[in-house]
Predict the structure.
Amino acid sequence: MDMPDTVSAAEASASGSLDGDYDDAAGYYTPGSPLVDTKAPDAPIAERWQTRKFEARLVNPANRRKLSIIIVGTGLAGASAAATLGEAGYRVKSFCYQDSPRRAHSIAAQGGINAAKNYKEDGDSVHRLFYDTVKGGDYRSRESNVYRLAEVSTNIIDQCVAQGVPFAREYGGLLDNRSFGGVQVSRTFYARGQTGQQLLIGAYQALERQVAAGTVETFTRHEMLELITVDDGSGQKRARGIVARDMVTGEIQTHVADVVVLASGGYGNVFYLSTNAMGCNVTAAWRAHRKGAYMANPCYTQIHPTCIPVSGSHQSKLTLMSESLRNDGRIWVPKNQADCDKDPREIPEEDRDYYLERIYPSFGNLVPRDIASRAAKNVCDEGRGVGPEVDGVRRGVYLDFSAAIERLGEKGITEKYDNLFDMYERITGENPFEVPMRIYPAVHYVMGGLWVDYDLQSTIPGLFVTGEANFSDHGANRLGASALMQGLADGYFVLPHTIRDYLADGPFEEITEDHPAVVEARESVKGRIDHFLSVNGTRSVDSYHRELGNIMWEYCGMERTETGLKKAIDLIRSLKDDFYRNVKVLGSAETLNQSLEKAGRVADFFELGELMCIDALNRRESCGGHFRGESQTEDGEALRHDDEFAYVAAWEWAGEDSIPVLHKEDLVYSAIEMKQRSYK
Amino acid sequence: MNLTLKIWRQPDASSAGAMHTYQLADVSPDMSFLEMLDVLNEQLNEQGEEPIAFDSDCREGICGMCGLMINGDAHGPEVTTTCQLHMRSFKDGETITVEPWRSDAFPVIKDLVVDRSAFDRIIQQGGYISVNTGSAPEAHSVPVPRDDALRAFNVATCIGCGACVAACPNGSASLFMGAKITHLGELPQGQPERDSRVVNMVAQHDHEGFGGCTNIGACTAACPKEIPLDVISQLNKDLRTAIKHGH
Ligand SMILES: Cc1cc2nc3c(=O)[nH]c(=O)nc-3n(C[C@H](O)[C@H](O)[C@H](O)COP(=O)(O)OP(=O)(O)OC[C@H]3O[C@@H](n4cnc5c(N)ncnc54)[C@H](O)[C@@H]3O)c2cc1C
Ligand code: SF4
Ligand code: FES
């Protein structure tokens, strides 16, 4: 396989100084009109949500049966919305690609969920959660939405407890909390290392209860492959349904409704290897993007420093190890390349480089996720990585517990870290009580997603987007335990209020199977499927996906530069051309066909990957998870440029053969002051 | 390592299936079992033979999507999910048989993929607490003794994979059902619907064609989440109580 070369930081910084007006992405995009109205009510920040809930029109309970809603996704964001809207009496159709709604990727979340309950009386409040989230997002999120998120967070815990979610409790029977992700208050609720699972099962059960009640119909093993938009007669196109493929029979179905909600999760799998589930994809969101929904800040990716490294070219996904391990483990690599394949226990203390402690003496091993990740990549690129050589490079650093084991004993460590040491041993076959763990950063979460307004409505009327699939709450970086909070806030408490204002104008005109817009959408899906099955080339879908992932990881991963990104765009374009001419998908369209499913997803990842690179190229600043080599302080710290880049980059699809259009939404902070961070 | 794989192949639900034999060379002990199948599929694709269909998603042992009978054991020789099983549990030169879950209530869809929607329908019949969004009381208004919460959590970790059914000679889903009955039954919030829950879930279980429990214990031995057998005693006890209450 073709491994892209690395662009060194020196090469990159040769491209210019930090001052002056840049337009790195010139030629790759067209400037568009600004996005000025986010529809947040004009009220003091603490009153905006109350105001909006009051102003949003109501739908008479008798009319709700006549209104239909499609919800794509059954993760926290989708299942919670489907259950709640079903309870309210709407007719809901719920879709997922797994064989049961309970298996959505939210199930894998480990650490916990934040809420401003202030049960510990440690100074937490809605305002503090709001402040931490905006600051954590490096001042690139929308203030109104984040405030609302903090505000409804407390209701989530009440709801989940009533559903029977078995959160950890103290001896007195009250809920336990822990502090998570470097914040100074304890506001994280958890169910051992399986919080996402327990929250999702709660939402899933609420959803199944509505299935029994007849308000929700579930479509499992169904994949949305196209959005149906229909002109409402005034020249305005509205989202009116989806085209889905029954993954068992291959049938191409059309489903129409008054409104469509995408809760289809994140697209981290554009990198091929990530901590996401195998099926996570961008198809639902990307198809909507191609029909007019803007894609916001697609380059904002979160890379998690403590994952189990790649063990060989067969690797299919990466596993996250809790970040809390950095509290007791010391991170190091050998000082000398020659020691990299030695037994680490035989490398003497003076030949070890505890590089985080060396470079960041005050924070040491506890520097933020992005800094720890980049430092690990740098030492491995220098050739000092450890573990197996994959594609010629060792990508791993030691996370060494020997001092902590001496201090706390094996028993103390096991009590503190539960099953993490076992999990590591199961995957690697090495006992971390004897040999230091090896870790490496991996793609974990995407902050970017479809642009939505305060109502969570996209730029297509009638298309709402919730959970990881939208962009709104985490800015350029997400704090730990805040994605679960956002998914459930959107689905239980926000969307059900905002969507009713839209539905108050319904039911909309009846749409039949032979409506030209429906026929067009269905035919385009069939055309794509026929194409994949007829190419009969020589390369498997996975091999293309892996190569795309390598390009993205190398050039649009932890450090991005102008030269690297431009190179990546060229590489992606030619790989995509080759894919359409040379991919090999066997089997038929009429049965379960996993290669065919993957082909559709990878095709969309190519287009997304290109847009991510263009977005990263345009944003010549470093913020949150986005690090531009050209924008750093003398010490190698991320440097934001608020004067030029305090905006949301919302990209409009301009057609197959055109470059995307950039619309900017300026970020204005009225309740918070912008600051630069420092960890030295 | 080099392996001989005997794998069940079946084009679709209505066609007959058969075991096929494949040779796979250079398998790394660090691969997961499913990555080994990925490699085999790449090889098949290259040779022009349609890849083998099997389910997986999280590949971390939590979503419950994966599940294969490996040498006759549900999820293979270790206490874990198929996706967390690694090739170092096998020997060079070994012959490994791979089949789908076997149960009348889980019909085969294709190759190694089965239909487990019966589990969702059991949950629909009462595997929840009826509380509409927004109507919940303050979370601290009802304290829950720590031990009860812990026990509820321990059985709520069931991933709905179906290994218990596949391992059971009677094809019973009692372990799966007992886990849910116990999870909700341990909590104060679960009490109001306790009787109707067990009666309705058991009725649906029988209706789906799952068999009765004769206390063999193969389910708990196969369960990757180590759900204990006593959840079935709890299930039976709750059922007796509900009947006594006139259900
Ligand atoms: C390993 C791991 C640990 C994490 N830990 C935490 C944590 O401790 N705390 C925290 O706050 N966050 C955590 N996160 C992040 C968090 O889990 C996710 O961001 C969040 O669960 C996403 O929820 P969602 O509902 O938006 O999407 P998902 O749960 O990803 O659900 C997406 C849904 O969409 C469906 N879907 C997708 N595409 C299609 C299509 N084309 N057609 C039909 N259906 C489709 C899927 O079937 C699925 O039902 C973690 C993430 C990972 C990977
Ligand atoms: S009880 Fe165990 S084996 Fe049965 S479905 Fe649950 S996790 Fe799987
Ligand atoms: S793939 Fe999720 S449990 Fe195995």
Observations:
- The pocket of FE2/S2 (inorganic) cluster (ligand 3) is lined by residues B 56-59, 61-66, 81-83 (CB under 6 Å).
- Confidence is low (pLDDT under 50) at residues 1-18 of chain A.
- The two ends of chain A are 40 Å apart (CA to CA).
